[in-house]
Amino acid sequence: MFNDIGPLELATIVIVGVLVFGPDKLPKMIQDVSRTIRKIREFSDSAKQDIRSELGPEFKDFEFEDLNPKTFIRKQLSNDDLGLQEIRNGFDLKKEMAEITDAVQVRESESSNPSSSSSSSSSSGSTGGTVDMTKKPAKPDPEDRPPFDIDAT
């Protein structure tokens, strides 16, 4: 319970206790506080046992720490029943982005110079693998537009 209290903090608490309660009443106060903490722990343990007994045998491994959302999510994500690890390993974001970039560059070069070969298009203004975001996109042909669906709007 008091795992994070250091020696300096403990000494400060003792000095403040001596100043507030006096050296005569301090031992009695420490006994009262420790007795109260012990009773609270016993009450908490008995309440946990009552809840476990009321839930039944199917909840025998139930831990109250699992009610904390962070602990619950961490526990559920550590179980790989859904095969999430396999999906994570099969998904390579860098490879996907490289494929998309290549496809955009090929499409850009085809739309800008449809009659020239790829060697002349690479020497005539290719940016070396980067996409120029300052260019305005080419206006699509009216024939390429998808049909208008009045029910979708």
Automatic annotation (TrEMBL):
Residues 104-153 are annotated as: Disordered. InterPro entries: TatA/B/E, TatB. Its main location: membrane. GO terms for molecular function: protein transmembrane transporter activity. The keyword Nucleus does not apply. Residues 111-125 have a biased composition (Low complexity). It is a single-pass membrane protein. Keywords: Cell membrane, Membrane, Protein transport, Translocation, Transmembrane, Transmembrane helix, Transport. The keyword Metal-binding does not apply. Residues 133-153 have a biased composition (Basic and acidic residues). GO terms for cellular component: TAT protein transport complex. It holds the Pfam family TatA_B_E. It is found in: Cell membrane; Membrane. One of its GO terms (biological process) is protein transport by the Tat complex. Belongs to the TatB family. The Tat system comprises two distinct complexes: a TatABC complex, containing multiple copies of TatA, TatB and TatC subunits, and a separate TatA complex, containing only TatA subunits. Substrates initially bind to the TatABC complex, which probably triggers association of the separate TatA complex to form the active translocon. Part of the twin-arginine translocation (Tat) system that transports large folded proteins containing a characteristic twin-arginine motif in their signal peptide across membranes. Together with TatC, TatB is part of a receptor directly interacting with Tat signal peptides. TatB may form an oligomeric binding site that transiently accommodates folded Tat precursor proteins before their translocation. This is Sec-independent protein translocase protein TatB. It comes from Streptomyces colonosanans. The gene is tatB.
